[in-house]
């Protein structure tokens, strides 16, 4: 069984400023989601609500169809892994892994196998680990939790590129072995894009966009050609660049008719990667409304 | 592995088609599972699933419930017909466009193609 997520008009305030403002969100069970947003956009707040680390100021947070706040049977099958892992620093790695057993589904053998594979020394104390090893310990505890909703919040920080790659690989293997709901919050967007089925973009405490990955990948376009021809298309650019007589613009959406007109005018049409699209969608000067 | 112009599921579908055309996948042969594709390419299994769904819709693959995906017996014929249909638009149209930009007369291209045909014989 894997968990659905539903937020109904959820607001979370620390002091006066809302971290999340009237958020509605529905996530189906058993998919891998990417949660994207700039620093301070509300990603961690959102995840903290789902893990019942925080109580919403108003609105409803449902996980597996039930209110998650003070709901031990649900919470024990939800894992939120934050950077650094929320560990007792004076504990050994071995002791830290074993303390995962308070979860009913924690797979201790798997955790030790991963520790061995990722070369995390069992006898060392957590505070003696490098930042990278500490992140690996957090990530492996998240995988071994075998939760029904697993959330990784910037857990890759401190991991080098080969380690991140091995972590994504293991995450995918574990997911295919045992389908469950996964939320990956990260700034390394292009690195994880292929693993995602859906993407949620949070901006200034609100859900800016939520769609499947192909929608995002087919959404934007870059158009490059003679400046006059590009201008003649009359599109609203998110960004533009000029190099001599050549102009390149990025648009958030390009319909088939505009695509055809561009091709006919000898304008080169290229894709916009998820990361670039994200940058444009969340750039302060480009936002309309809100 | 993937160029980011076309959606990944379409690139996988195109690759399976190419494998059928070049004979590395035989008609009636079994195709790797969604999870095997996902693990091999390091992609979400739903993405691989979309590629398979498209190929099933086109009649290139068929599904045997609980067993797996197989290459349709007439898959190669279908694909060959499709390739022929799209050949002029896909290959020759850009060629003509580029030749025009470079100022190469069509007669030169025709001569070149005739020579090629001579060489192929």
UniProtKB/TrEMBL annotation, chain A:
Pfam families: ABC_tran (PF00005)
Top-level taxon: Bacteria
Residue ranges of every copy of the ABC transporter domain listed in the record: 5-229
Any one GO molecular function term: ATP hydrolysis activity
Record-given protein name: ATP-binding cassette domain-containing protein
Matching PROSITE patterns: ABC_TRANSPORTER_2
Alphabetical list of InterPro entries matching this protein: AAA+_ATPase, ABC_transporter-like_ATP-bd, P-loop_NTPase
SUPFAM superfamilies: P-loop containing nucleoside triphosphate hydrolases
Originating organism: Glycomyces albidus
PANTHER family: ABC TRANSPORTER, ATP-BINDING PROTEIN, SKFA PEPTIDE EXPORT ATP-BINDING PROTEIN SKFE
Coiled-coil annotated residue ranges, if any: none
Record keywords, A-Z: ATP-binding, Nucleotide-binding
KW Transmembrane helix (keyword) present: no
UniProtKB/TrEMBL annotation, chain B:
Cited Pfam families: GntR
The keyword Ion transport appears for this protein: no
GO molecular function: DNA binding; DNA-binding transcription factor activity
UniProt cross-references to PROSITE patterns, sorted A to Z: HTH_GNTR (PS50949)
InterPro entries: Tscrpt_reg_HTH_GntR (IPR000524), WH-like_DNA-bd_sf (IPR036388), WH_DNA-bd_sf (IPR036390)
UniProt keywords, alphabetically: DNA-binding, Transcription, Transcription regulation
Domain HTH gntR-type: residue ranges: 6-74
SMART domains: HTH_GNTR (SM00345)
UniProt keyword annotation of Transferase present: no
Coiled-coil stretches: none
Protein's UniProt name: GntR family transcriptional regulator
Organism: Glycomyces albidus
